[in-house]
Amino acid sequence: IRSIYGSNIANNLLNVEIDLDENFKNEFGLISLSGMISNTSFENKKSIQPIFFINNRLVVCDPLRRAISSLYSTYLPKGHKPFVYLSLEILPQNVDVNVHPTKKEVRFLNDDEIIEYIVVSLDKLLSELDSSR
Question: Is 49 helix (H, G, I), strand (E, B) or coil?
Answer without folding.
Answer: coil
